[in-house]
Amino acid sequence: MSRFLGEPLVHFVVLGAALFALHRAVAPPAATNVIVVTTALQRGFQQEHARRHGRAPTAEEQRALVDRYVETEVMLREALALGLDRGDIIVRRRLVQKMEFLNQDREPLPAPTDADLAAFLARHAERYRLAGRTTVAHVFVSARLHPDDAETIAEELRARLAAGEDPASLGDPFLRGREFREATEGELGGVFGPELARRLQGAPVGVWVGPYRSSFGLHLVRIAERSGGRPATVDEVRRELGRDWEEERRRDVAGAALRALRARYDVRIDPPPAQEAPAS
Amino acid sequence: MHRFRCPLLVSSPLFVLTALVVSAAAAPSPSLDAYALFALETMHVRNLRAGDGDLGVNQGAFTARGSFAAPTAQVVATSADVVASGICNGIYATSVGSSGPGCQAAGAAPQPIVADVPTACGYPADFPVCDAAAPVVVRAGRRVLPPGIYGDVVVKSSGAPATLELTGGSYVFCRLRIGRHGEVRFRGASQLHVAGALKLGVGAALAPADGMAPPLAGRVYVQGTSVTLDREARLAAALCAPAAKLKANRSRLEGTAVAREVRAAGATVLRPYEEPRAACADHNPLRNLYFGDLHVHTALSFDAQAFDVRTTPAEAYGFARGASVALPPLDVNGVGTRTVQLERPLDFAAVTDHSEFLGEVEECTTPGAPNYDAPSCQTYRGETFNAVRYLALPLAALEPHRFTDICGPTGEECALQGAQVWQSVQQAADQAYDRTSACGFTSFVGYEYTSARGTSTRHRNVIFRNDRVPYPTTYFEEQSPQGLWSQLDAGCRDAVNGCDVLVIPHNPNESNGNMFALEYPGARSVAAERAQAATRSAMEPLVEIYQHKGDSECMNGLSGVIGASDEQCEFEKDPRAFQDCGDGTGGGGVSRFGCFSRLDFVRNVLLAGLAEEQRLGVNPYRLGIIAGTDTHNGTPGAVEEATFQGHRGTDDDTPATQLGNGVLTPGGIQFSPGGIVGVWAEENSRPGIFDALRRREVFGTSGPRIAVRFFGGWNLPAGLCAEPDMIADAYAVGVPMGSVMDPPTAAAPSFLIAASGDPGTLARPGTPLQRVQVVKGWIDDAGWHQEVFDVAGDADNGATVDTDTCVASGPGAADLCAVWTDPSFDAARRAFYYVRVLENPTCRWSTVTCNALAPVDRPPACADPAVAKTVQERAWSSPIWYRPGV
């Protein structure tokens, strides 16, 4: 008995019978000259009309929409019956395009796990590198207000700052403000000029230093905090990572799907044509 | 962008299916948070528009009459009666009297919906008492009120606008009455307890201060039995008035409102929306300076595409952030062969492609698209001159039509294609927006509405506040700015929670008087004109004063303006032959033909605004000032004269074409790199930058990163320029650029004007400042007046530039500051003041480009004496207005 069940021929017959039964049960009737405009379809027309015109179609418009659907369906089926889709470059491109997207969506893409994102981040660390950021306060001595004694004033202010005076009431007004939080070197360059922004990158943290010179005058500065340029963590760039990970996965999936499909074909490539001299 | 096309097509049935499942599964919410408008007993609405947020009656009847448009709102009540044409997302009620197909019964409602409404909306168990407290009356100007117990509070706004600002915390008022156009603003989270009635008069507002507090910063508890909102009143708060009858007449409710009974006619109900993002590490109440470009075209614009520009919106945002892009001419693979990159990235940008042909360009450039082979597409893909002219023709027509061979008889094909392109535009902006706490870059979704009706430029850029955006309006649907504004009201401001928008006109210099013509189409009364003026002022708070196609600040020799000629108006002018439009308008400006009108220049438009305000009580042209590039290369902020590479793809991709004429617009050497906009904002985020634009605390520059601050007040200390807390003091005693001054408390206004020069880069140091000027405009019985005052610096500082080597020499200022008092102030006359900051002269881009060519290769334009060899780069502040009391 068990031997009988192991026979490939038996498998073939049983499976074939099952498939035949299934086909009978599932396949539509052979007649193709029936057009059914389902309620669901009509609801779709309604919604589309509402989306475009901001209101539901009138009864007359609804009839016209159904009518138009029926007419296009008739034309489409006749065209398909005549084989007009074959050899049409536009249809060909459209179908190929659809296939490309189908390939991309072939596997439902699960949400990436933290491990997926971490691995992706490790592979592309440079892309997600975070710029160095500095939080800096300054006390400003204006060269315009003190053309002759800016240095002296700056030295005096430096002593007062060292003695613990409140910086908020010291120095001259600076148009762009007194404090800049988590600014990149480029952003600081836009405020103080590139030379001073560069110097700030090397200034010690937590103490008043300077004065440093800009085109506007002298600056006593205190770096409250500095984070060097460094690779990002997953949490810091989760949104971008998720987006880029998904893009890469879709590309990979589509590539694999195309390779798999191609493997099912025997491809014969005839010799290339002889080079013809270009027409002059 | 092709990548986004088909996934949408393929998966769209899936979306529909999901949407259906979701809406079928939805049931009435038992939480008050879900309701935009909630009544304990009855709700009667007529002509109501509602965004998402449901409408609920706890135990009682709901009635909707007139028009009822609430496509995403559920109606939940004991019984409901909805006009047959009404639209909603389902009715949940025990009995449904009448309803139509757009708003159908979907199920039963729980009885009651919420068990204890007062507690659910936070109503205090012991309502604080207000008796014997001192009343507060604000007649005009601004008053800041700390938390506390007060008597009757009245904000009157007689003549000049009156504003009461609540700093945050708990307030108790006996009654609150906000008169016509008065405002009560929340600066921080505030709980406002009103023991008696709450009334908002015509145009009054009870809302958060722009840019300073989140949308629901105000919670308003009313013990009284009456809450009234008159026409155009705006309530943006969480209202809890369980004993009150809420009457809203043609007003806006942006929040959640709970009342015993609700009667609303012509009201718009929206709920606040805040786009998710991390809080900015750098948030400065005294405001930081950010630079950006709000006028940028990419390959999606029909003209840029025809000029072989292939820069995508994503690449344009990338360029603004510091990445390079490749410009035409294209190589055999269709890749650009010139690489450009900003020396300094921008802080923000908006891609503003021509909205008109988004679908057509996609259709005509995508092999396989259904109408790819249409004759019009073939013309468009043909020779550049024909391509651009052919598509641009309808934009000047009085009755424009889409190309039926590309779009089909109903335009459907282009609408479909356009919708997908618009998706990609939004996606690019979304991806470029830095939502981390670094707040390094802000992108805006936008487009350009391209009306050249009657061949005059009436172009306007449309900039959205966040990711809630409607499909663009084009010249094909709306042929007037009024039409554009009403579309933006209907599709955005009045329809979608959180949607807000700015419309920014540009190139009035090419409009032959049409951009700012004094027109009130269809208005038959002064009241109707006033309403139109108010709409214009709300939709268009800004104007682009300078860009690639020249300067629109001012022009000498035009009729109707009294005052000495201003030599600094001779700056980047459209060189067409001078002809004055007089009091009329002309045509041809879009091709740089036709007459000039005084209303082609911002200074005179501001004067016209004063005159209209005198006549109507509302200033239609209260315009803040910005500048932009109008690049058609997708290169925002590419404004450096010394490295200018053109702005129009193959139309100006070589020195010869840059210096000669382009194929379409006679301009060539007369064009320039354009400018950028500076914004004083608390932080670099969409709400931060957008609100600054809306309150006009912005300025334009002709390219350099000049910083300028401008405050006006009545008692500014003379020594303010040396005060350590200069900026904080200026905010405390004055108003910043873009504002209307408080009513006078001194004989003449004084102004703080502080500017600093561009600090430059290591490769290219900035140019020092020469001087700072104040431009004053005012009107009296004699007519329109202008006067220019030098207030700091030195016009004769002797600085020069050698136009053969472009080496500059001579002294200049790194920064300048002055407190200036108007020497000829008349308190009875309306006036405005704005600042112009001038750099020392430098070589114009054309001089640099000509010098780089061998003498034999230089085109004749290089020797044209009409073309300036040097340029004085500059910044223009937004104005400060003076408005006499009545």
Which features does this protein show?
heterodimer, A: 280 residues, alpha+beta, B: 886 residues, alpha/beta, 13-stranded mixed beta sheet, 16 helices, 51 strands, 30% strand
Helical residue percent band of chain A: 40-55%
Largest sheet of chain A: 4 strands, antiparallel
Number of strands of chain B: 51
Tally of DSSP β-strands of chain A: 4
- Class of secondary structure makeup of chain A: alpha+beta
Overall geometry of chain A? elongated
**Distinct helical segment count of chain A:** 10
What low-confidence regions of chain A span 5 or more consecutive residues with pLDDT below 50?
A: none
Average pLDDT across residues of chain A? Answer: 85
How far do the termini of chain B sit from each other?
56 Å
Q: Which structural class best describes the helix and strand composition of chain B?
A: alpha/beta
Tertiary shape of chain B? globular
Strand order of the largest sheet of chain A: 2-1-4-3
β-sheet strand percentage of chain B = 25-35%
The helix content of chain B, as a percent range, equals: 10-25%
Query: How much is the radius of gyration of chain B in Å?
Result: 28 Å
Quaternary state of the chains: heterodimer
Distance, first to last CA of chain A: 80 Å
For the largest interface, the chains and their residue counts are: A-B, 55 and 56 residues
Task: Describe what you observe in this structure.
The complex is a heterodimer of chains A (280) and B (886). Chain A has 280 residues and is α+β, with helices and mostly antiparallel strands. Chain A contains ten helices and four strands; from the N terminus they run H-H-H-H-H-H-E-H-E-H-H-E-E-H. Helices cover 51% and strands 12% of the residues of chain A. In chain A, helix 5 (89-104) packs across helix 10 (238-263), helix 6 packs across helix 10 (238-263) and helix 8 (185-192) packs across helix 9. Chain A is elongated, with a radius of gyration of 37 Å. Chain B has 16 helices and 51 strands. In chain B, helix 4 (313-320) packs parallel to helix 9 (412-432), helix 5 packs across helix 6 and helix 6 crosses helix 7. The model of chain B is unreliable at 1-25 (pLDDT under 50). Chains A and B meet through helix 3, helix 5, strand 2 and helix 8 of A and helix 1, strand 26, strand 41 and strand 46 of B.
